[in-house]
Design brief:
With about 190 residues, the protein is mainly alpha-helical. The chain has 8 helices and no strands. The model has no long low-confidence stretch (mean pLDDT about 80).
Amino acid sequence: MHWLAAHDAALLLALYRHPGDRVAAAAATALLQISGGGVCWLVVFGLLFVGGGRRGRRIALTGALAVLLAHAAAVWGLAGLVQRPGPAATVPGVTPLVGPGAPFSFPSGRVAAAFAAAPFLTRGSGAGPAAIALLVLGVSWAGVYGGVSFPADVLGGAAVGLACAGAGRWILGDPFRRRRGTLVPLPRQAARR
């Protein structure tokens, strides 16, 4: 386990504010601020619920449940069980771009919420799903770049998020499955006399 922690810290230092670009730091700060607590994903699902029609409401409810499950599992469940201190507490010279945040960093709650939302928002083609996929990857990058999460925290958060997306589908049903129409009974043949 010590080997993993040492390599995780080395990878963090390789990615942490590298190369120190102001634009990248501003982008990471913005991504970290909007993704805290999964609120941005709940807002997106709220907009989808209002304007998405019947199917959009099903996707929004299932996705919002997945995000809430991911936040609860990552922040209130696993982080308290694992109790891994964040990079600022364990790696010298690392200061997070945003406030102190949660006392424990594994798994990343931001990344868990993002990966819980991704399967519901990246279906289809076009600019919308591609932008959501880039946003999810950006949140993952920002956690490490901003000194909030170790790379293993990001991987753990992604696993928790995808598991919670599956749990949301299991609880409320798959919102992408097309419901089959009702069967029309065959007309009865006239009885022979």
